[in-house]
Amino acid sequence: MQSDLTLRRPMEDEEEEFLRAHRSTSPEVPSFLHYYEEGMPFRRYLEVLAEQEQGINLPSPQHVPSTFLFAFAGSRIVGRASIRHSLSDFLERQGGHIGYVVVPEFRRQGYATAILRLSLQIAREKSGTDRILVTCDDDNVGSIRTIEKNGGILENVLSGPDMDKPKRRYWIEVK
Questions:
Q1: How many angstroms separate the CA atoms of 164 and 173, rounded?
Q2: What per-residue confidence (pLDDT) applies to 13?
Q3: Is the pLDDT of residue 86 over 50?
Q4: Closest to 83 measured CA to CA, from 43, 37, 45, 116
Q5: What span, in angstroms and rounded, lies between the C-alpha atoms of 42 and 160?
Q6: pLDDT over 80 (residue 44)
Q7: Helix crossing, 141-149 with 111-127: angle to 10°?
Q8: 74 burial class (0-12, 13-18, 19+ CB within 10 angstroms)?
């Protein structure tokens, strides 16, 4: 377990580390940074994240307020979490309350499990529910293990024309 891990927004003087994590992860995971546009001033990006958390200027009616945090181990960004405050129809089917990504160089070191563990408490506070939905692709063995280590109980596996791959839907009871 990564006990030194914290979930938080970057500070304005951490732009270089933010961009390092973005460049390292985005070729493989284009959605690593929600709401970020290449070349966007870092201060503006931090403002956008604060707006999203408050439900201001959401990109579409399908979007819900969300808390977007970065996982720091010391001064390094090792991953990120998107914590949705409620579930739209899309999120109920495919996305869940929490999405997380680990920066490639930090994978297989326990960070995903720690990021999800920390995110569960925040999701409980933000959503007002003790049942948190977490989903993953049916073939993502690492995420399956991460979710199950955090108490995830598989409800079902969904597929359909609206999905690239079948999705596993897990519920986690948070006390």
A1: 28
A2: 94
A3: yes
A4: 116
A5: 38
A6: yes
A7: 60
A8: exposed
Query: DSSP letter at 164?
Result: S
Please, which residues bridge with residue 157 across strands?
A: 168
What DSSP state is assigned to residue 139? T
Give the global pTM: 0.93
**Residue 2: which residues within 8 A CB-CB, separation 6 or more?**
73, 78, 109, 110, 111, 114
Total residues found in the chain within this entry: 175
Q: Which two tokens stand for residue 40?
A: 């966007």
Report whether 168 contacts 94 (CB < 8 A): no
**DSSP string computed for 100-135:** EEE-GGGTTSSHHHHHHHHHHHHHHHHH--SEEEEE
Alpha-carbon torsion (104, 110, 113, 117), positive or negative? negative
Q: How far is CA 15 from CA 9, 20, 54, 77, in A?
A: 11, 9, 23, 11
pLDDT at 1 over 80: no
Q: What's the pLDDT score for residue 2?
A: 60
148-173, pLDDT tens digit by residue? 999 999 999 999 998 889 999 999 99
Cβ pair 2, 111 in contact under 8 A: yes
